[in-house]
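[09:14] KT: can someone run the structure on this one? pasting the chain below
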Amino acid sequence: MDIQVATQFKNSLLELTEILMAKEAWYVRCLKSNDNKQSGKFDDVLVRHQVKYLGLIEHLRVRRAGFAYRRRYEEFLKRYKPLCPDTWPHWRGVAADGVETLVKHLGYQPDEYKMGRTKIFIRYARTLFATEDAFEICKHELATRIQAKYKGYRAKGEFKKQKEAATKIETCWRGVQARKERERRAWAVKVIKKFIKGYMTRGQAKTTDNSEYLAFVRQSYLNRLKGNLPKTVLDKTTWLTPPPVMKETSEILRQLHSRWLVRKYVRGITPQKKAQMQMKVITSAIFKGKKDSYPQSVAVPFLDTRISEQDINVRVLQTIRHERIKYSVPVVKYDRNGFKPRPRQLILTQSAAYLVEEAKIKQRADYVSLKGVSVSNLGDSMMILHVANDDHKQKGDLLLQCDHLYEFLTKLSVLANKQNAIKVLQGSIKFEIQGGKENFVDFSTGQEPLVYKGKNGHLTVVSQKLHPYKNIQNYTDRVQKPWGSHRGRGPDELSQEEDVTADLSPAQS
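[09:31] RB: done, structure tokens below
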């Protein structure tokens, strides 16, 4: 059947209408900038005329009075969903509900928007601009977040690869270590077996079984001995007890080490210390083990003199000017009859001993006429100088009390060469008086030291009983360190050291 022209026209209009309804209408107004068709040139009068007669002003007024922006829910949600945590990254519900949640989160006021059937309508352009600005800011944050997630993903992958590689390396390394440990334990088992067999046969002659064990014993003993050698000659207890296989060698090493210590000690002695030691050796030879107060005197150094020449009267110095003064010390002299104590000065020269009272020489005793010196075995400081009575000027023996007894008697024995003439006696000591008379000095111990004339007419000397180690701190505190390494040692140690020095050969001392 033939289709009429009107029908064709109608059908064409319907198709066009369907096409237009399927599209979203957008109207574009074209304005001529100028009549000369020149770019970059605007004719203001012409442009205003076109805007006025095209009705653009009225159209803008209508749009402003209504809703300036409208967009389907799906498109609006797709663009602005990053602005709300509830809609980002995926909204699992209806698009309209998602848009409602989004605009509430953005703080839209009820009069700023309306929810349509498929679209959202926004009344004010400022609301859309604010939303767009927030979206621009959010885009940078999203880019940073996506970048961080991607970097994390890459780093995590790299970490997994490194972890797998480390696990493989660790597995291989543990295998190597396990094999080494197995070999080491096998070697240790062999060594232990050989060690046990060597220990069981240690008393036998050197064989293949015990040779390594004996070598280990020697090396171990020498290593322990190296760190525990005695530091001084007097140390007799530090030397380690050797095993049976090292007894002979240990004794040889001990003797060599002792000789080295002695050599080192002797080489470190200065001339002043050497003189002090020689004097102390003489004192030790005379009094050690004989007189109770000797141990307390060991740590006290000897001085060259106890009285300077300035403290000796000038007249006395002029009298003995032809003799050289070697030593002088203050003493207390007791009368031979009444035993009255009198302070005096005792001066030793090259040839005689002088008993001086201020500017007067009371008695001169030549070393030749000195028969001997007697002291008690107790802790007193009394001494008796026995003088020959061949000369009528001699008044008899001298009864003297000296605080520096050991120092004085040592100096006297050296100057007079009468070391063997000094006697340490027990009980009473006899002394002679001018005219052939005799008397006695009785020695005893008590709570306090006393010197007085007894009822029997004898001079009684009471000394305080001394314990060998009592008050040891008192006299060690008085040590003035004259010998360097002697500082702080006890009397017994110094006595032993004197014995060691006395045993040295003349070349060593």
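[09:33] KT: thanks! The two ends are 158 Å apart (CA to CA).
[09:34] RB: yep, looked fine to me
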